[in-house]
Amino acid sequence: MKQNDLVGLQRTLELIIEGKKFTWTEQYITGAQVRKLGNLSPEAEIYLRVQAPWKDEPVLDDTLVDLARPEVEHFYVLQPLEYTINGVRFESRSQYINGNLIHQQASIPRDHQIYLAIQGPWDDELIGNNDFVDLARPGIEHFYSKEVVYEFLLWVNGKEKVWKKSKISYSEAIILAYGEQLPNECRVYTVTYKKGPEQNPEGSMIEGDVVFVKSKMIINVSATDKS
Which residues, 6 or more positions from 24, have their beta carbon under 8 angstroms from its beta carbon? Predict the structure, then answer.
């Protein structure tokens, strides 16, 4: 038999790339060859579809895949997952995203909370910094941020004061108590507190200090004039 006849009898193996059928004359194919055969971009992340319960396998350029195995091998490109944050479109190569990454990507202030929009009648879901959301679920996930509105009732020098921040500084405590803070050369202030939150249940403050607050926290500020 002539060499040309042998070539004609050479077996061809089928494979599927991004839903299109191709043939290959060798038993093995590399990821680089799949990329070239399917005219895929250099940035495309190629995966080999695997039957459940096993996970699909990533195919790198130097990965060898045996096309002679039973069934036709299916290759596909992992598509980026779309989602929005405050109406702005983002893409992710990762299936999961958490609140911390959402804060970073959209430059959202840390005192804002992140919510995942949920179709009614259900309430939107609060996403904590370490809470993960599956972006591969059907549809596009929509996140939005909301400024946290705080309102605490503090006891400052025996008087009830309304405070609308999660923290209070040394200077703010003085102004809350006296309405002003005179320069250090005129007056010395002593600030102490108790019944605070778990981050700082009790203690004293000096210039530059900032502490967390909670309702019914007691703050005492005393002032001594310099002679």
Answer: 12, 13, 14, 15, 33, 37, 67
